[in-house]
């Protein structure tokens, strides 16, 4: 294929008037400034008065939301919706220091309704934040060198990195790399400093956004680093995934996977989740060049007319994987080497204390759906006060107290014990569950997720026990909408919300994050879901082969047809 | 009224004898009714027999015959009671053949004072013995050095007040004393009225009309000169304070969000079929009834059965019914304190009656309800009749109307924040606000009437307005905005609103937002006092916007203040003076003059409580 045959009618090469309204909005925003600073002063509304600013703030890690539980009540009270904001922190690799933890904790207590949420991209979200509290939070984060740049928006989002202690051989090195890549790919505009820190606008000699330009990316762009054998970050769900390859001599480089992404839309078969395709190997020193090259190709060729079709995965499927690979190589200035062998064993977390070869200890705590309520905040604040290592957030929304010296283990156990948070028994299904936030704060949710999944699991546990599957690890993921924050289309069991109490049920995802699932029930209520799962799990218990995972079984048994590629997801 | 000579050709002697005979047996109400009756008769005659012109002409000649002294009825009012009495007085005076002119102190041209002859004054008292706000300038003039000597003037004052305030009827007393100082001659002694002013006011009206009427040399035949309005007022059964309309509650919801420290409610009444109309700025009066639980508790403390009957002005009524619907049974007034001190012979109470214990008395009155006194100083065998004689009649409560008929035909909306507090370990609620919050569901009916508030009125459609309000004080501005939207007014408008918390207490938030969007409302500034550690009130926002605010004033803006009388009104007043002084770069006195002239021009109007 030659460049001549490539369709350029929907990309950056076109004039703005031919592209989507969002492209024009970005271009007119003066590099993400918009009128945000002005809107923050509006005392008549708790929202941002300009719809454009609401979108621009996402580039700065801030989502405008409202308490959906109160919408009707407040409308009758002649009050506007209970507007509030979600602030997502940029925390590359999901690592933070105890000092940072204490700051996050304090800000959440003061401005965030005494709760923090660990996310599926290893960071924190503040919820229930009022407009007047935005600056105090962002300035507070700045005091401990944290920010919220590009935590959302059409840009490169927070960079992920495996935190599973069993993969710790290169953890420190790759976590540092994740941080460097994140700092490298985020927007460079000074808008953030001006709006949130009150910095003066200074004239600059060079372009404000040397890489992005005025219109940034066509859509979000996600980068992650996985360290086999753990695929805890779901590397195949990233736009660009780097799979670390190393041996006793150290880190050699990375297999590169491109084109992952979860988002889809119900009743729009042209949209689909896609798992990233491994296109070859690069030496470690090519990571920046490779990330830049992949982002350049997507920046230049991604669809800017239709946001539903703008992710890298569609660009790849439209232009062809080989052509995209060649373009990346051209920008990178070198060829990919042949893919190196690697093996993933799971995309879940390993709980409890783990000792690594460096003699350090790591405790992974199960935090259901990542929700740090006041009891958890109190507990972990006390841990942070004595902890000398780091905290790591997992992509499964759990918390690791990492890098603990052997002598300090007892003290940490004692703190957990004193708060009643010592690790107890949690069922294998619950340990492998992920729910997104959904109602009442997320504006996209069509059904409950975080508030409902624990209840659904309560009802599944006796079914599993009945089939003798209580200790069988099975991944279950729930999202309140089809966009896929909980990466549902990889779950062995998955549910996406359609309406209050109604979900699509999917089966057949890969336990190692290597295979998409397929829908088996559409728009179903709880009883139909439980009935179907009871039947399929019953067959699994009876017919499975030794060591066979539930997702693999449903394919082999012919219960669901395997989805071999994203574009066949809706077939 | 005495009548001597028959008025020439107007009546036959036989007719005149009948009139004389009848008039001697008439009470004042009957006379007023008859005046309306004959006015209507006159109108009917003129319609039926247009050719018989001699009758009214003759009467007119008779009416102008006596060399009457000029009679002016001057009233100062904030809630409209004085205005109502002044109008009643005028009708009675006209019925007696007098030709009174009625004037509001707010509009009265001060230089005319020296030319007055008979001056009848009806004025109320507010706050610490202050005159009604619209009458402030008149008081300043009369009590000031520029007031003319009034040797040829005769006067009488009716003072309205509330005995639960320390400076009872002070406004009226001040004028009564001052007019005498200026050399005027008192016609009859000043009469002081409590909140149940009707009877006292009526006897004062009768007394003064009788006195002036008796001086009339000519036997003016009142009936035929009475204005035709008297007929409609007397016969149409219009709803007013004495004859309230049972309005159906069509909405009653809290309009503060969850977690609010307030309970502010939005209440909608249907006025359909009432014939009631109002203008933006007017108030709705609601006839009160006491909480049945409070009545029961009081009867229990008194040891009285609710069914015990007694004679109340010639009618046998049950005490339970009387305490529920007829009398104030919460706040203690001095009259009750006197009565209970006498009855209980409690030295602690008697002591409070001494003049030197006035301070303690004030504290006691503030911290005790009637039931607390009854419980603390028990008395056996209380007689219902004696007990109620120490009580004040239950008064209706007034609420600024939060709607405009132009936008909400046949409806009146109110914004009500229930008064709640604790005394002696018991939760207490305001009589009507508590009733509205706790005991009035949609479809219930409550007796209501419209209380005109002529000193809180929108200016012309093109004049800019600045509306300043806190809490439920924002109610009339909702009426203003509805009215201006319905009329398509072009004048700019600016609202300053204050409450406690943005999230929960932004009353009518979505409505202001949509008026801002369509430019019915030009600007809005808000102050929420409890969102941050440092308290911010509307006067702070006024000062922040001082430059623009002064520019608006210079461009003819009308300023409105509605809400709390003890803090908001004086703080806003001071802020306005500060702003004028600063922006106009003039001294404080000049700034005060500037603000005073705004008041005199009716461009600075207040509705505070």
Write the layout of secondary structure elements.
The complex is a heterodimer of chains A (571) and B (609).
Chain A lengths: L20 H7 L8 H4 L11 H8 L3 E5 L4 H6 L6 E6 L6 E2 L1 H14 L4 E3 L5 E6 L1 H13 L16 E2 L9 H15 L5 H7 L25 E4 L13 E8 L2 E9 L18 E7 L3 H15 L10 H8 L1 H12 L19 E4 L5 E5 L5 E2 L1 H13 L3 E4 L5 E6 L4 H10 L9 H4 L1 E3 L17 H14 L9 E4 L13 E7 L2 E6 L10 E7 L1 H18 L6 H7 L15
Chain B lengths: L12 H12 L3 H21 L5 H11 L6 E6 L4 H15 L4 E5 L13 E7 L11 H8 L10 E7 L9 H12 L3 E2 L4 E3 L4 H18 L6 H4 L3 H7 L9 E10 L10 E6 L12 E4 L5 H11 L6 E4 L2 E4 H7 L8 H11 L2 H7 L4 H10 L2 H7 L7 H6 L7 E4 L10 E6 L3 E4 L2 E4 L1 H8 L6 E7 L13 E6 L4 H13 L5 E7 L2 H4 L3 H9 L5 E6 L9 H7 L1 H9 L3 E6 L4 H17 L3 H13 L3 E5 L1
Parallel strand pairs in B: 1-2, 1-3, 3-4, 4-5, 4-6, 17-18, 17-20, 18-19, 20-21
Antiparallel strand pairs in B: 7-8, 7-16, 8-13, 9-12, 9-16, 10-11, 14-15
Helix pairs in contact in B: 2-9, 4-7, 10-11, 10-15, 12-13, 21-23, 22-23, 23-24
Keywords:
heterodimer; A: alpha+beta; Sulfite Reductase Hemoprotein, domain 2; five-stranded antiparallel beta sheet; 17 helices; B: 609 residues; alpha/beta; Rossmann fold; Elongation Factor Tu (Ef-tu), domain 3; NADPH-cytochrome p450 Reductase, Chain A, domain 3; six-stranded parallel beta sheet; six-stranded antiparallel beta sheet; 41% helix; disordered N terminus
Describe it.
The complex is a heterodimer of chains A (571) and B (609). Chain A has 17 helices and 20 strands. Chain A is of the alpha+beta class and 571 residues long. Among the domains of chain A are: 352-424, Alpha-Beta Complex (Sulfite Reductase Hemoprotein, domain 2); 429-556, Sulfite Reductase Hemoprotein, domain 1 (2-Layer Sandwich). Chain A has a 5-stranded antiparallel beta sheet. Chain A has a 5-stranded antiparallel beta sheet with strand order 3-14-15-12-11. In chain A, strands 6-7-8-9-10 form a 5-stranded mixed beta sheet. In chain A, a hairpin with a 5-residue loop joins strand 14 and strand 15. In chain B, strands 1, 2, 3, 4, 5 and 6 form a 6-stranded parallel beta sheet that branches. A 6-stranded antiparallel beta sheet of chain B has the order 12-9-16-7-8-13, covered by helices on one side. A 5-stranded parallel beta sheet of chain B has the order 19-18-17-20-21, sandwiched between helices. In chain B, helix 2 crosses helix 9, helix 10 (292-302) packs parallel to helix 15 (370-376) and helix 23 packs across helix 24. The longest helix of chain B has 21 residues, at 28-48. Chain B is globular and about 70 Å long. Classes of the chains: A alpha+beta (571), B alpha/beta (609). The A-B interface holds A 43-46, 70, 73-80, 82, 130, 132 and B 253-258, 266, 502-504, 506-513, 516, 524-526, 531-532.
């Amino acid at each position: 294929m030659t460049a001549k045959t490539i369709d350029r009618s929907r990309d950056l090469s076109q004039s703005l008037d031919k592209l989507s309204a969002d492209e024009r909005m970005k271009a007119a925003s003066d590099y993400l400034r918009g009128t945000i600073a002005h809107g923050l002063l509006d005392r008549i509304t708790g929202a941002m008065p300009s719809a454009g600013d609401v979108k621009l703030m996402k580039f700065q890690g801030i989502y405008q939301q409202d308490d959906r539980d109160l919408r009707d009540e407040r409308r009758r009270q002649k009050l506007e919706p209970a507007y509030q904001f979600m602030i997502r922190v940029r925390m590359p690799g999901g690592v933070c220091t105890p000092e940072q933890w204490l700051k996050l904790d304090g800000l959440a207590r003061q401005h965030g309704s005494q709760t923090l949420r660990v996310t599926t991209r290893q960071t924190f979200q503040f919820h229930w934040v009022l407009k007047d509290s935005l600056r105090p939070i962002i300035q507070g984060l700045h005091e401990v060198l944290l920010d919220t740049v590009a935590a959302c928006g059409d840009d490169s989002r927070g960079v992920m990195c495996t935190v599973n202690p069993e993969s710790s051989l290169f953890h420190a090195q790759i976590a540092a790399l994740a941080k460097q890549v994140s700092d490298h790919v985020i927007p460079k505009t000074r808008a953030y400093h001006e709006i949130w820190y009150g910095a003066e606008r200074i004239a600059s000699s060079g372009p404000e956004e040397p890489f992005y330009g005025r219109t940034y990316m066509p859509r979000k762009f996600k980068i992650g680093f996985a360290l086999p054998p753990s695929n805890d970050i779901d590397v195949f769900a990233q736009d660009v995934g780097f799979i670390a390859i190393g041996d006793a001599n150290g880190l050699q480089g990375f297999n590169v996977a491109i084109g992952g992404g979860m988002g889809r839309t119900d009743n729009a078969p042209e949209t689909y989740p896609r798992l990233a395709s491994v296109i070859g190997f690069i030496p470690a020193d090519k990571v920046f060049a490779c990330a830049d090259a992949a982002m350049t190709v997507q920046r230049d060729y991604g669809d800017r007319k239709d946001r539903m079709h703008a992710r890298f995965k569609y660009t790849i499927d439209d232009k062809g994987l080989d052509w995209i690979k060649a373009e990346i190589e051209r920008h990178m200035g070198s060829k990919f080497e042949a893919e190196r062998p690697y093996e993933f064993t799971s995309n879940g977390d390993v709980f409890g204390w783990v000792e690594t070869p460096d003699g350090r200890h790591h405790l992974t705590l199960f935090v259901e759906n990542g929700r740090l309520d006041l009891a958890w905040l109190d507990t972990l604040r006390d841990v942070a006060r004595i902890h000398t290592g780091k905290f790591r957030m997992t992509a499964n929304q759990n918390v690791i107290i990492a890098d603990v010296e052997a002598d300090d283990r007892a003290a940490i156990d004692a703190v957990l014990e004193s708060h009643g948070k010592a690790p107890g028994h949690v069922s294998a299904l619950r340990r492998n569950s992920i729910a997104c936030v959904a109602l009442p704060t997320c504006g996209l949710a069509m059904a409950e997720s975080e508030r409902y999944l624990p209840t659904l699991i309560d009802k599944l546990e006796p079914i599993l026990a009945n089939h003798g599957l209580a200790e069988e690890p099975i991944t279950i993921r729930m999202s309140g909408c089809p966009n896929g924050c909980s990466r549902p289309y990889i779950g062995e069991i998955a549910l996406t919300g359609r309406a209050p109490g109604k979900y699509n049920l999917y089966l057949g995802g890969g336990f190692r994050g290597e295979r998409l699932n397929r829908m088996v029930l559409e728009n179903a209520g709880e009883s139909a879901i439980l009935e179907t799962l009871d039947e399929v799990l019953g067959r699994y218990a009876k017919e499975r082969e030794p060591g066979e995972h539930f997702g693999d079984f449903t394919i082999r048994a012919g219960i669901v047809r395997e989805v071999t590629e994203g574009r066949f997801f809706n077939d | 009224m005495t009548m001597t000579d028959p008025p020439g050709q107007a009546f036959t002697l036989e007719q005149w004898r009948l009139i004389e005979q009848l008039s001697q047996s008439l009470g004042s109400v009957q006379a007023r009714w008859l005046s309306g009756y004959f006015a209507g008769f006159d109108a009917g005659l003129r319609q039926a027999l247009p050719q018989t012109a001699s009758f009214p002409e003759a009467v007119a000649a008779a009416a102008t015959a006596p060399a009457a002294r000029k009679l002016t009825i001057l009233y100062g009012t904030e809630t409209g009671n004085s205005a109502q009495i002044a109008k009643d007085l005028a009708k009675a005076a006209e019925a007696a053949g007098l030709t009174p002119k009625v004037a509001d102190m707010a509009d009265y041209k001060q230089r005319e004072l020296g030319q007055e002859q008979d001056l009848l004054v009806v004025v109320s008292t507010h706050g610490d013995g202050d005159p009604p706000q619209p009458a402030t300038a008149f008081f300043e003039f009369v009590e000031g050095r520029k007031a003319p000597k009034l040797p040829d003037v005769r006067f009488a004052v009716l003072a309205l007040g509330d005995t639960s305030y320390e400076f009872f009827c002070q406004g009226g007393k001040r004028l009564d004393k001052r007019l005498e100082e200026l050399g005027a001659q008192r016609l009859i002694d000043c009469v002081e009225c409590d909140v149940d002013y009707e009877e006292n006011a009526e006897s004062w009206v009768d007394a003064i009309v009788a006195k002036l009427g008796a001086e009339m040399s000519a036997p003016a035949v009142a009936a035929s000169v009475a204005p035709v309005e008297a007929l409609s007022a007397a016969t149409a059964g219009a709803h007013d304070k004495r004859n309230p309309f049972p309005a159906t509650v069509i909405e009653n919801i809290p309009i503060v969000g969850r977690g609010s420290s307030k309970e502010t409610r939005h209440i909608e009444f249907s006025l359909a079929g009432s014939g009631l109309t109002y203008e933006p700025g007017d108030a709705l009066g609601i006839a009160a009834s006491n909480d049945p639980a409070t009545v029961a508790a009081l009867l229990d403390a008194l040891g009285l059965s609710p069914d015990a009957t007694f004679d109340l002005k010639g009618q046998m009524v049950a005490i339970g019914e009387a305490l529920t619907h007829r009398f104030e049974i919460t706040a203690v007034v001095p009259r009750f304190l006197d009565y209970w001190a006498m009855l209980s012979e409690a030295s602690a109470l008697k002591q409070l009656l001494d003049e030197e214990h006035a301070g303690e008395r004030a504290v006691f009155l503030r911290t005790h309800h009637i039931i607390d006194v009854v419980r603390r100083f028990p008395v056996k065998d209380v007689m219902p009749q004696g007990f109620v004689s120490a009580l004040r009649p239950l008064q209706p409560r007034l609420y600024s109307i939060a709607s405009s008929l132009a936008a909400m035909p046949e409806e009146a909306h109110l914004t009500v924040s229930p008064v709640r507090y604790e005394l002696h370990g018991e939760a207490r609620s305001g009589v009507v606000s508590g009733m509205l919050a706790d005991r009035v569901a949609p479809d219930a009916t409550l007796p209501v009437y419209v209380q005109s508030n002529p000193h809180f009125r929108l200016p012309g459609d093109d004049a800019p307005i600045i509306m300043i309000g806190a809490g439920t004080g924002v109610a009339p501005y909702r009426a203003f905005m509805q009215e201006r939207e319905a009329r398509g007014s072009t004048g700019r408008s600016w609202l300053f609103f204050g409450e406690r918390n943005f999230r929960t207490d932004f009353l009518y938030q979505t409505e202001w937002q949509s008026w801002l969007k369509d430019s019915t409302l030009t600007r809005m500034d808000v102050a929420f006092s409890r969102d941050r550690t440092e308290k911010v009130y509307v006067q702070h926002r006024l000062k922040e916007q001082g430059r623009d605010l002064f520019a608006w004033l210079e461009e003819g803006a009308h300023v409105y203040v509605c809400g709390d009388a003890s803090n908001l009104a004086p703080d806003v007043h001071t802020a306005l003076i500060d702003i004028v002084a600063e922006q106009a770069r003039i001294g404080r006195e000049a700034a005060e003059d500037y603000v005073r002239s705004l008041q005199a021009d009716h461009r600075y109007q207040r509705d505070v409580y």
